[in-house]
Automatic annotation (TrEMBL):
<feature type="domain" description="Carbamoyltransferase C-terminal">
    <location>
        <begin position="404"/>
        <end position="593"/>
    </location>
</feature>
<dbReference type="Pfam" id="PF02543">
    <property type="entry name" value="Carbam_trans_N"/>
</dbReference>
<dbReference type="InterPro" id="IPR051338">
    <property type="entry name" value="NodU/CmcH_Carbamoyltrnsfr"/>
</dbReference>
<comment type="similarity">
    <text>Belongs to the NodU/CmcH family.</text>
</comment>
<feature type="domain" description="Carbamoyltransferase">
    <location>
        <begin position="3"/>
        <end position="346"/>
    </location>
</feature>
<dbReference type="InterPro" id="IPR043129">
    <property type="entry name" value="ATPase_NBD"/>
</dbReference>
<protein>
    <recommendedName>
        <fullName>Carbamoyltransferase</fullName>
    </recommendedName>
</protein>
<dbReference type="InterPro" id="IPR031730">
    <property type="entry name" value="Carbam_trans_C"/>
</dbReference>
<dbReference type="InterPro" id="IPR038152">
    <property type="entry name" value="Carbam_trans_C_sf"/>
</dbReference>
<dbReference type="InterPro" id="IPR003696">
    <property type="entry name" value="Carbtransf_dom"/>
</dbReference>
<dbReference type="Pfam" id="PF16861">
    <property type="entry name" value="Carbam_trans_C"/>
</dbReference>
Length: 612
């Protein structure tokens, strides 16, 4: 039984292939189209999935879509009517798109699929539609290691739901309760993302990274004016301060007045005010998540919790939930956003619609997240020869040994190995690596490799069996979705004067033995690397440990600001040549920057990408 599943037309379109209940392939369209957060029909990702599974289109039994557009259209109409005549401009902007395309999504999907398959629309397999939050919940529970668990989904908005609670047991997934639009923790966080000058739907993680530089001086004001938070974690927002329900922006003039000025303009200097705003909304978000989780645990009396939806990518809140929450353990879907909805609706079709049984697995069934394309040595050599690249081909052991040596010399290495990751995190398949012990590595990577803001922290990859030696973490974190504190014996004491520093000044103080991955609050977003799911990356960490006695590396995604993570050898080589990376490990081929032929330099290259 082959199920092809799709998310598209809103954020981060993706395709997934499920064969007899097993994930065969999953990928976001942006990785192929090279358009960040591409929301168009995932034609290229879909073709990849079919090729990876060696499945022809006529062997597909069902095509599943992650959302119910008619319900979403109902919500839009009811919202505009509720706020009329305010919001008429927004109505005029949205309606033509809906009336032309989204309202007739079934026919649009049939046309797109027929074009790919070279068949008539009537020959397209049966279409199935799941509700948005049902798809999120399914993506969280079905791949998880639990037989029975509560599921908490939090995002901006689906059709109506913004927060939903479910009970997963065996192969069943039952809705329990939900909070509806316009009251949304995800949209509240996005409102502050917008107000502090970052781009909504992509800048939220910047706000999370900025928070430790500030103090939560506005948290009480948020809870007093913007968000009525009940003891059970449910909430209502005072919509007079927001414009997203009926306008074209997230916040309005009342919001500006409340916080003492207009939104920060994108690319304007960051001030202590933005840092304090970030700290405040982060503190409020964590409080809401903890209260909701406590209520879910009390009402449902289960030991485990699964998370999905965009808010589940808030790894700081996840870390607090794990440490302070009532559950024995939590599992977070690594593709928690809309892309993961494609995976969820595939599982819903398999278990709910087709009534197939489910058996939970130890660990999970996500295969470490490595669900995208891989490239053979023949593929890689063919491309490198076509551009006249200079390289050395090594054995596996030679590769790990030489790259580890390069990293000890403060070199930055592009690491392109095996299958590409599904979801927003690079997990050692498409990564840029550095030495975490270096005091300058964070600034070098931000300014010369990633071309992004200096305050942005980098994440550590650590051998799973050594993680607790360095971090206050006693369980796996394979998907880089938990923030944990650094072990106290790895920290460096700072002086009284350094403790009094504010804002970005904190960035320049080394706080640990691994300063390149230690945030200013002694925290880190940890990825535990497991020999079972990524033996090559684990072997590199092991080799680095043999040389340095440190089983940790800096791991950031293989891309530059505004560009999707690289997918192909061509993407990787282009990124390598246009940045100040020192070496590229492309499969078993190692390339040194100084050995390469001149690259056609495009002076406008950094400007051609949409600044995120």
């Amino acid at each position: 039984m082959n199920i092809l599943a799709i998310s598209a037309y809103y954020h981060d379109s993706a395709a997934v292939l499920l064969c007899d209940g097993e994930i065969i392939a999953a990928a976001q369209e942006e990785r192929f189209s090279r358009k960040k957060h591409d929301a168009q029909f995932p034609a290229l990702a879909l073709q990849y999935c079919l090729e990876e599974g060696n499945v022809s289109f006529d062997a597909i039994d069902y095509v599943a879509f992650y959302d119910k557009p008619l319900l979403k259209f109902e919500r839009l109409l009811e919202t505009y009517l509720a706020y009329a005549p305010v919001g008429f401009r927004s109505f005029l902007t949205a309606m033509p798109v809906w009336l032309k395309e989204k309202l007739f999504l079934k026919d649009l999907l049939r046309r797109e699929l027929a074009q790919i398959a070279g068949c008539k629309k009537t020959e397209v397999p049966q279409l199935l539609f799941g509700e948005h939050h049902e798809s999120h919940a399914a993506s969280a529970f079905y791949p998880s290691p639990y037989d029975k668990a509560a599921v908490l989904c939090m995002d901006g908005v689906g059709e109506w739901a913004t927060t939903s609670v479910w009970l997963g047991e065996g192969s069943s997934l039952t809705p329990v309760w939900q909070i509806d639009f316009p009251h949304s923790l995800g949209l509240l966080y996005s409102a502050f993302t917008y107000y502090t000058g970052f781009k909504v739907n992509s800048g939220e993680y910047k706000l999370m990274g900025l928070a430790p530089y500030g103090v939560p001086e506005y948290a009480d004001l948020i809870l007093e004016k913007l968000l009525h938070l009940k003891d059970d974690g449910t909430f209502r927002m005072d919509m007079q301060y927001f414009d997203y329900a009926n306008g074209l922006t997230m916040t309005n003039r009342r919001f500006d007045t409340l916080f003492g000025g207009p939104p920060r303009q994108p690319e304007a200097p960051l001030t202590q005010r933005e840092m304090n705003m970030a700290a405040s909304i982060q503190a409020v978000t964590e409080a809401v998540v903890l209260k909701l989780a406590s209520t879910v645990h009390r009402e449902m009396d289960v030991d485990y919790l699964c998370l999905a939806g965009g808010v589940a990518l808030n790894s700081v809140a996840n870390g607090r939930l794990l440490r302070e929450g009532p559950f024995k353990d939590i599992w977070v879907q690594p593709a928690s956003g809309d892309a993961g909805g494609a995976l969820g609706v595939a599982y819903s079709a398999w278990h709910n619609y087709l009534k197939n049984p489910r058996t939970s697995q130890s660990g999970d069934s996500m295969r470490g997240g490595y669900l995208g394309p891989a490239f053979s040595d023949t593929d890689i050599r063919s491309y490198l020869d076509s551009v006249g690249a200079q390289y050395r081909q090594l054995s596996d052991e030679g590769l790990y040994s030489q790259v580890a040596q390069m990293l000890t010399q403060d070199k930055v290495v592009g690491w392109f190995q095996g299958r590409m990751e599904f979801g927003p995190r690079a997990l050692g398949g498409r990564s840029i690596l550095g030495d975490p012990r270096s005091k300058t590595m964070q600034s070098v990577m931000n300014q010369k490799i990633k071309y992004r803001e200096s305050f942005r922290p980098f994440a550590p990859s650590v051998m799973a069996e050594k993680a607790s030696d360095y971090f206050e973490l006693d369980r796996p974190s394979p998907y880089m979705l938990l923030v944990a504190g650094l072990q106290k014996n790895k920290r460096i004491a700072i002086s009284g004067d350094q403790e009094q520093m504010f804002g970005i000044e904190k960035l320049h103080v080394a706080r640990s033995e691994i300063p390149a991955v230690t945030h200013v609050d002694y925290s880190a977003r940890v990825q535990t690397v497991h020999q079972e799911t990524n033996p090559g990356y684990w072997a590199l960490l092991h080799e680095f440990e043999k040389i340095t006695n440190c089983p940790v590396l800096v791991n950031t995604s293989f891309n530059v600001r505004g560009e999707p993570i690289v997918c192909t050898p061509e993407d990787a080589y282009r990124c390598f040549m246009r940045t100040e990376m020192d070496y590229l490990a492309l499969g078993n081929f190692v390339l040194a920057k100084g050995d390469q032929p001149d690259w056609a330099n495009d002076d406008d290259w950094q400007n051609q990408f949409e600044l995120d």
